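Progress against Task 2.4 (sequence-to-structure conversion) is shown through the following example record, which the project officer requested during the mid-term review.
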Amino acid sequence: MSARLAVVIVNFNALEWLQRCLRTVYAQNIANELEVVVVDCASTDDSVAFVRREYPTCTLVASDENLGFGRGNNMGAEQSSAPILLFLNPDTEVEPGSLAELLGFMEEHPEYGAAGGRIYDGDGELERSAGTWPTVFSLILDRLLARWPIFRSLLEHRAHHYWNYGEWREVGWVTGAYLWVRRDAFERILGFDRDVFMYYEDVDLCYRIREIGLRICFFPGAAITHYRNKSPVGDKKRKRIMYRGLHHFTRKHYSWRCKGLTLLVVYLLEKNFPQYCR
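C-alpha cells generated for the chain above:
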C-alpha cells in the first residue's frame, strides 16, 4: 500500500521531545499509511541513534550541519513520495485521530494547497496557529509591543480571541510547527525559501501557494500540543534569527517604502535593545 501522508520532522538536539513526538505519530490510527522522515541537523544528543534503534522503518536523514527549518524540510520532502506532506516540529505531540481527520479533508478538497489545525501549548492554552496576511504595520507592532509584559498580554489576548478556534475558516497563513501542504503545490513553488534559516518561512510559503491559485485552511478538528520554548536554541540567538527572518520576509514581499521602514525598526531594535537581537 502506498503512503497517503509523509510526516517530515526536522530535529536538532531535541531527543526528549522527539521521542514523545514519534510515539504519538506512530500511535495514529493511520500509522500504516504514513511515511515518516526525520531530518537530523547534526544533533549531539543521541537523536540519530535513537531513531535508528527504535524506528527502523522511519527514513532518517542525518546531516552533518544544521540546515535550518526550511532547508531541512525541503530535504525531508525530497526523501518521501506521499501526495500530502505534514511538516511537524519535534517538540509536539499529536492528538489521537488528528492526522486521519485533516488528511481526509486535504484529500477531499484539492482547492486547498495548505492547511493547519489547533495547537495547544504545554499548559493547555491555545497558541496562535493561523492568521490573515500580515501587514508591515502589524509585523512591526507585534515585535515592538511584545517587549513589554503589559502589551504582550494584550497581544496574546488578541491572538486567542481574534476568532473562534473551533470554527473552520480560510486564512492567509498557518504556522510551520504543524503545516500540511499538497506535494504538487510544494514542488511547484520549489519548497521553502532556502535563504531563510528559521522564522517567517511558513508565512512566505503560504503566500506563494496562494499566488498559484490555491487556498489556505484552518481546520479545527486536528490538534497537537506544542512545547514551545523547549528548543536548545537560546533566547538571544532565537531573537537574532527571528529578526533576520523578518528582514528577509519584508524585503521579499513588500514595497520599498515598507522595506525601508522595517529596516529602520530592526536597526533601532538592534541599537537600543541589543540583548534581544544578538
